[in-house]
Amino acid sequence: MDKEYLSVIGVGYWGKNLVRNFSQLGVLHSICDANPELLKQCQAHHHVTRAYSDYKELLLEPSLKAVAIATPAVTHYEIAKAALLADKDVFVEKPLALNILEAQELIRIADERKRVLMVDHILQFHPAIIKLKNLIYSGVLGKLQYIYSNRLNIGKLRSEENILWSFAPHDISVILGLVEEQPIKVNAFGEYYLQEKVYDTTMTMMSFSNRLRAHIFVSWLHPFKEQKLVVVGDKKMAVFNDMEEDNKLILYSHKVQWVHRVPVASKGEFEPVPLEKKEPLNEACLHFLGCVADRTRPRTDGKEALSVLMVLNQAQEELDRGH
Length: 323
What we know:
Layout: E1 6-9, H1 15-24, E2 28-32, H2 36-46, E3 51-52, H3 55-58, E4 66-69, H4 76-85, E5 89-92, H5 100-112, E6 117-119, H6 127-137, E7 144-154, H7 163-179, E8 185-191, E9 201-207, E10 213-219, E11 221-233, E12 237-241, E13 249-252, E14 255-259, E15 262-266, E16 270-272, H8 280-294, H9 302-321
Parallel strand pairs: 1-2, 1-4, 2-3, 4-5, 5-6, 7-10
Antiparallel strand pairs: 7-11, 8-9, 9-10, 11-12, 12-13, 13-16, 14-15
Helix pairs in contact: 4-5, 5-9, 7-9
């Protein structure tokens, strides 16, 4: 395989980060964007010699072996399908598609053509989440009881997708990965204030077996940025706060004891968990390149993305019923 074999399609808000990473990793073949100004800026900044305005023309290039797609969500299915049918390996930003049938078709095509299909559920590659999974699996937290996630900010506002589809996929992916099962029930409610039918804030609640519950609160109408995940077990509690520079993952040994038939909370010491200093996006890109080289299935493959999409669809149906 040629050293430079991957193209980034879509070099805007998030795509430029993919360009930076794949360029640093030495595999960047070219860039592609329908916006000539974005294309020109990215070319100059990253010293890219090959640039395309039409992804269909790009996919005809025989030296191209893989693409990374960072275009608006509504285009993911169309571009990913075209790339797979052109026998290219595909790395695509979340969500994989906007409905179940489209996602299933992409998975089928990838399997039939033996192509790598990976969705960038970036938190799965965060050192804190990887460590948290290990702590859960080793029994440090005990039996999981409740999980909640807040992903809040002011902006970046979108018109082509609501806050549920823009913010929640990462948290759904993480929670499903920690629990290792699909929810038996999904509830959701929210409201739109800025644009008709484009939700600005939503709360999604998931019920799992064994009385485990989880909720995800997302909003782009919030006075400050917050990205926090709390996992409550019957032995310990864990807090992942991605806004912290240090001590992103902390364990709490709080306990509840019964005194004269009355529950009494006993606060324990908090324990910062040491983490490796790694950029999650860089780790995701490295993982994809490893799968391309070894022809192995990615950690966040099409089937993992489909499980996230199923929850998103259930939550959206609940939102639609509420209005």
